[in-house]
Amino acid sequence: MPSPLQDRIAFVTGASRGVGAAVARQLHAAGTRVALASRSGDDLGLDGALGLTCDVADRAQVDAAIAATVERFGALDIAVANAGVGAYGDFVDLPWDKVQAMIDINLMGTLHTARAAIPHLISRGGGDLLAVASVAGLRAFPGESVYNASKFGQVGFIRSLDHELRDKGVRCTNICPGGVATDFAMGDGRTPDMPELEGMMTPDEVAEVVLFALTRPRSVRILTTSFRPAGEGSWG
Ligand SMILES: NC(=O)c1ccc[n+]([C@@H]2O[C@H](COP(=O)([O-])OP(=O)(O)OC[C@H]3O[C@@H](n4cnc5c(N)ncnc54)[C@H](OP(=O)(O)O)[C@@H]3O)[C@@H](O)[C@H]2O)c1
After folding, report:
1. Which atom of ligand 1 is nearest to the CA of 17?
2. What is the pLDDT of residues 77-86, one digit of tens each?
3. Which UniProt key words apply to this protein (predicted)?
């Protein structure tokens, strides 16, 4: 039986590395036509893929990137708002540019992606809008006040959109992983030699959950899925 992802058309933000790159690669392997958006515009060398230079903090750039995706592939079935940054530390000590970046990229970037993608998903007769949020979108962590704010915002936004878009056939899903070993927050709370990285999940393990959500029958929708590495605590 052909994969339900065969010949679908997907737009993935933050696709140049980490979780987004793993999602783009797995979608591509499943036969999806993929547009990869990031500031670097890397297409990862995926055959037939579209690499797009796009800062998700800038609404006009996201509009242009989605328009370029639809122009190249003819439609849009899947939008994955994955681009994100993190900087940890006490709120009063966080440099303001880091505060601004977490809100502008993690939260506003998701709003920009959704706003540009939704009309295309609806006109396709239904589709999928996913946010790669975080466990930090469900629970508060010390030293993560602004990251928490951006991720709680992302989760609440997607959950509300589910009400708005369900009868239009668009599924809205929050993907909420615990720790993933990537470049994320490197130098801003994480270091390459920190022992915790060892036990974290791989980007491919997170991407598998994204593809699981996308391959459910259209009669089923996953609202929020939360999962963690075996060694990570439950934090309440
Ligand atoms: N790593 C974790 O432990 C973890 C856990 C839970 C949730 N998450 C979430 O997972 C998502 C992906 O994180 P990751 O771990 O894969 O991080 P990562 O390895 O640092 O990758 C981040 C990606 O986002 C892109 N990006 C950053 N700023 C951008 C911008 N302004 N516009 C467009 N693209 C931008 C980066 O590419 P360019 O630099 O080329 O733009 C890169 O492709 C994030 O939303 C993060 O909050 C991560």
Report:
1. 43
2. 999 999 999 9
3. Oxidoreductase
